[in-house]
């Protein structure tokens, strides 16, 4: 099955939700103009890492973010992997991903599992505890947030449910570790025999410079399409998920696993 993917590699205005919502809406319109099937945003696009201001900035139950993403999905007939946003749920803060299909219906909600100490995430936010698998555009998919990709055992847990055909990754990944970002994503593609669609932001906040390099990677680990490290852009590529089926037929790693020995 062929699928046109669009990645919105955007800058994020720290603590300025209104401005960021306008940016998100702009890129949805641009994705629709090129007839994209799926649009992917980066991590924490509503606030950036304004963690000390979450009491005032976090989206209560994700209501505003969900309303916007649902509206854009329905208006432009886009399947949207909504990056992630800072939310407040039951008096706790979370880094939350919402996924909407092209009719505007929510198909997944996921709170980031692994919180990143180098950016003090664990001091302000709570961790999730559920998998993030869903059907999108007729394709079995999974998604993870940034630091999650350093835990291949977690991604394998999700990818072996099905198994999934596409792994979406959303991030705010700093530029000084951008080579690791690419290497790990290619490794996750190879070991899970899956397409990886990864959206990172560009720009900077008070403490970090972010590295862009959003990527679409095939199941053999080859880079299909890659954005630059510094500029906002809408990255576009068409993938064919039948390629993945060919790879899995050649090397049946999921059939040959012995999970009873892994834990």
Give the number of helices.
8
Radius of gyration: 17 Å
Name the beta content range: 25-35%
Tell me, briefly, the overall form. globular
In short:
It comes from Leuconostoc gelidum subsp. gelidum. By secondary structure, the protein is of the alpha/beta class.
Tell me what you see in this structure:
- The structure is a single chain.
- The protein is α/β, with parallel strands linked by helices and 263 residues long.
- Helices cover 29% and strands 30% of the residues.
- It contains eight helices and 16 strands.
- The strands form three sheets. Strands 1, 2, 3, 4, 5, 6, 7 and 16 form an eight-stranded mixed beta sheet that branches. Strands 8-9-10-11-14-15 form a six-stranded mixed beta sheet, with helices on one face.
- β1, α1 and β2 form a beta-alpha-beta unit.
- α1 packs parallel to α3.
- The N and C termini lie far apart (36 Å).
- The relative contact order is 0.15.
- The mean pLDDT is 96.
Helices and strands in order:
Elements lengths: L1 E8 L7 H17 L4 E3 L13 H4 L1 E2 L2 H14 L2 E3 L3 E5 L2 E9 L5 E6 L9 H4 L8 E4 L2 E7 L6 H8 L6 E6 L6 H15 L2 E6 L1 E3 L4 E3 L3 E3 L5 E4 L6 E8 L1 H9 L2 H4 L7
Helix pairs in contact: 1-3
């Amino acid at each position: 099955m062929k699928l046109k993917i669009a990645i919105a590699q955007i800058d994020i205005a720290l603590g300025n939700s209104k401005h960021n919502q306008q940016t998100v809406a702009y890129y949805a319109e641009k994705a629709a103009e090129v007839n994209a099937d799926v649009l992917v945003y980066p991590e924490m696009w509503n606030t950036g890492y304004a963690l000390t201001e979450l009491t005032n900035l976090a989206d209560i139950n994700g209501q505003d973010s969900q309303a916007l993403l649902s509206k854009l999905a329905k208006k432009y007939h886009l399947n949207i992997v909504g990056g992630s946003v800072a939310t407040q749920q039951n008096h706790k803060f979370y880094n939350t991903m919402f996924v909407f299909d092209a009719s505007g219906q929510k198909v997944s909600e996921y709170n980031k599992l692994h919180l990143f100490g180098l950016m003090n995430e664990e001091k302000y936010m709570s961790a999730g505890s559920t998998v993030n698998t869903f059907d999108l555009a007729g394709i079995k998919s999974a998604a993870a947030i940034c630091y999650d990709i350093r835990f291949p055992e977690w991604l394998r847990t999700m990818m072996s449910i099905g198994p999934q055909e596409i792994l979406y990754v959303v991030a705010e990944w700093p530029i000084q570790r951008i080579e690791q970002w690419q290497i790990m994503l290619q490794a996750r593609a190879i070991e899970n025999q899956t397409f990886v669609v990864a959206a990172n932001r560009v720009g900077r906040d008070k403490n970090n410079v972010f590295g862009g390099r959003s990527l679409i990677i095939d199941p053999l680990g080859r880079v299909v399409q890659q954005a630059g490290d510094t500029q906002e852009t809408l990255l576009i590529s068409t993938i064919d998920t039948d390629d993945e089926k060919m790879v899995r037929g050649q090397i049946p790693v999921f059939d040959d696993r012995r999970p009873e020995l892994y834990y």
